[in-house]
Amino acid sequence: xxxxxxNIRNFCIIAHIDHGKSTxxxxxxxxxxxxxxxxxxxxxxxxxxxxxxxxxTIRSHAIRLEYQYKDGQIYILNLIDTPGHVDFxxxxxxxxxxxxxxxxLVDASQGIEAQTISNFWLAxxxxxxxxxxxxxxxxxxxxxDTTVAQIMELMDVNENEILRCSSKSGEGIDEILNTIIEKxxxxxxxxxxxxxxxxxxxxxxxxRGAIAFIRVFEGRVKKNDKVHMFGTGRDWEVLEPxxxxxxxxxxxxxxxxxxxxxxxxxKDVHELKVGDTVTxxxxxxxxxxxGYKEPKPMVFSGMYPEDPDQYNELKDALERLTLNDSxxxxxxxxxxxxxxxxxxxxLGMLHMEIVQERLDRDYGLDIINTLPSVVYNIIHTDGRxxxxxxxxHFPDMAGIQQIKxxxxxxxxxxxxxxxxxxxxxxxxxxxxxxRTEYLDTTRVNMVYELPLAEIVYEFYDRLKSVTxxxxxxxxxxxxYQEADVIKLDILINGEPVDALSTxxxxxxxxxxxxxxxxxxKTLIPRQMFQVAIQAAIGSRIIARTNIKPLRxxxxxxxxxxxxxxxxxxxxxxxxxKKRMKSIGRVRIPQEAFxxxxxxxx
Length: 601
Hints:
The protein has 14 helices and 31 strands. The strands form 6 sheets. The chain has an 8-stranded antiparallel sheet with strand order 11-10-16-7-8-15-12-13. The radius of gyration is 29 Å and the shape is globular. It has 5 domains: 5-183, Rossmann fold; 196-280, Translation factors (Elongation Factor Tu (Ef-tu), domain 3, Beta Barrel); 299-372, Alpha-Beta Plaits (2-Layer Sandwich), CATH 3.30.70.870; 377-482, 2-Layer Sandwich (Alpha-Beta Plaits), CATH 3.30.70; 487-597, Elongation factor 4, C-terminal domain (Alpha-Beta Plaits, 2-Layer Sandwich). By secondary structure, the protein is of the alpha+beta class.
C-alpha cells in the first residue's frame, strides 16, 4: 500500500566523530520497535566488524522506522546514519542529498568541534531543516549551558529550539521524534510525474547482484518496470523493489518521497553508479537530479598483492569494494620491484587504512602499499599541463616550467591554551594562517591553508599529541598553488627502486632521504659484496649509506708458513667480490618494503 507523502520524513544524523550518532540511532530504533530487545546490540546499523572494533561509522546506513505520533497517525521515518570522520565526508554529502532534514548532534561534554561546523554548513547549502541536539547530558563532565551557548552562536537559534538528550539512557528520545515530525517538511514530490530517483548507496549480493539504494523524488517504480540509468545509459528490468529495515523487505512499489532499494540483476559492478539518477525507460524524466557531490580522491598509493598470483583476486575485490565505496578509484599499474598491481585513489589516510583492512578481512588478501602521494599539476615548458599522482611518471625537471600542489582550507578547533603548539605544528608543515575565531571564552577555531602533502603523513596524530587529544580537525580542497617539489629516488647499488620513489618538498628531501637510507640499511640482508644505498634528486646524490659485506675467512686454513700465501688468497677473494658486485643483484625482501612503507615519513 502506497504511503502518503505527508506522512513521510527523510532525515539524517550529522555530527563530529564520537559524538553519539550510532548510539542515538540505536535508541530511535528501539523506540520505534524496529528491532526487538533480544536482537538489540550496540551500533546495530554498523554491520562491519571493523566499524564496531574502531567505534566509528565507515559507511552510511539507511533504515525505515515507523512511529506513532501523539495524534495517533503512523509516520514513516527514513533515517540515514552517517560517518563522522573527515575522510568520509562524501558519505555525509550523499545522505544530505537524499533528505529534507538533519539532526545536528553535539556532545555536551566536548562542545562544538571542527566537523560539527563543517557538517552544519553542508546541510545549510542543501537547504535542509536542521534540528540542533545537545547529546550526553547525563555525563558528570557535561557542560550543557556552554554547549547550548555554542550552538546558539553557530546556528543563530533560540535556546528553546535546542533539544537535550542522552542517547545512552534514552532521555529525550520522544521529544526528538516528535520534533522531526513537526519541523522537518514532508517530501514534496509528485507520484504521477516521470520517475526520478537518486542512487545514494549500493551494495553487492553474490546471489542477487548489485543492489541500488534509492530515494524516490518524483514518480513511482514497481516490479517488472523497465528503468533507465542516466549515468551509464543502460536499461534494466526491476526484479524487486523494497524498503530497508534491518534487512531488505520487498514491496509492490516505491512512490515519491520513499527510500528503499532496487534489485535489477546487475552482475557487472561497473553498471551501477552511486549518485546516478534512475528513471523509467518508457516515460523518461527530462534531466537527471542535480546537486550530488562526486567524491574526489586526495591520496594515491600503489597496491600490490604480496603473492603475485593473487592479482586477479585483488582486481575482483576492488571492483566489489567500489560498489559500496564509490570514492575508491583504481587503475592497473606495474612496478619493477613489486610486479603487477593497481594505483588506487583514497579520500585520506584513514580511508586507505580501512580499504586495506577490508581487503585483508573480507577477501583474505595480503597487500603491500607504496608510499602515499598526492596529485600534482605539472606545467611543462611548452605550456602543456599534466596531472601526476605516481612518482614513476614524474617527468624530467629540465622540461618542467612550474609545479603546483593541492592545498586544503583547514579548521582546527581546540582549547585556547594550545594555540602556540598548533601554530608551531602548522608552521613546520608549511601552513598559512588565515584567521583565528574565538567560539567562546575557552575554545578557538583556527583556519589555515595547508598543503595536502603535509597532512598525508600523520598530521592528525601529531595534532592530537600536541593538544593532548583536545583538538578536532576538518578540511576541504582549496585549489592548487605553486610549490618547490622534487622527486626523491632511492638507489640500491646504483639501480632506482621505483616502489620507494616519492614526490616531496625540496626542503624536506635530505632529511627524508637519510631516514629512508638508514631504515633500509637495517632491513636489507647483508650480501657477499658491499651494497650502496643512496637517496638522489635527479643525478645528485643527497644521502648515502653502505651495507658491509659478509666476509668469509679464506685464510683460516693457513696456519704458520709464509705470509705471501695468505696475501694471495686475500687478493683472489678481493677480485671475486669485485666481479660479484658488478653482476650481483640485491633482492629486497617483502618485509623490508612493508617496514619502510609503513614508516612515518
